[in-house]
Amino acid sequence: MFSLTIICGFSFDAASQSKLPESSIKTVYIVPTSHYDFGFVEPPDLVRERAARHIDEVIRVAETNPNFRWTIESVWQINEWLKRQKSPTSVLPKDNAKIARLMKLIKSGQIALSTSWGSMHTDFMGAEELNRICY
User: Which of 19, 34, 64, 113 lies 20 to 30 Å (CA to CA) from residue 131?
Assistant: First the structure.
């Protein structure tokens, strides 16, 4: 066990602080995100497995929260997920209707698919690919 002690050597007088001007921002949205650099943080096989399991988790959360939105950023992630539907490595291993569940969420707009195969990298994408990724 350890303890943490913080000693502050300054005082704060809220009454003497000037008020900030009112902001036009009334709502702040917290957006969950993930990004998989293929083989950057972990070996490619581990990244593939993590990405596939992540889609299972996205399906679960989207089905329990109708306001949840997600974009699957790379086609390779869907490809890996589809490969693993025959194996019991997923978060939802015995759900034979998982592909239909994902398609329903895509059609409803809760889950979106990117049009790029992998991460956007300027060495691999020209102007045409960068433009087409937006629609």
Answer: 34
Identify each DSSP E strand in the chain by its residue range. 70-72, 111-113
The phi, psi pair for 113, rounded to 5°, reads -115, 135
* 47 neighbors 79 (Cβ within 8 angstroms): no
What's the count of helices (H) and strands (E) in the chain, helices before strands?
A: 4, 2
- Domain spans of the chain? 41-132
| Domain 41-132, CATH | 1.10.1240.90
pLDDT exceeds cutoff 50 at 1: no
Q: What does the alpha-carbon distance between residue 20 and residue 23 come to, in Å, rounded to a whole number?
A: 8
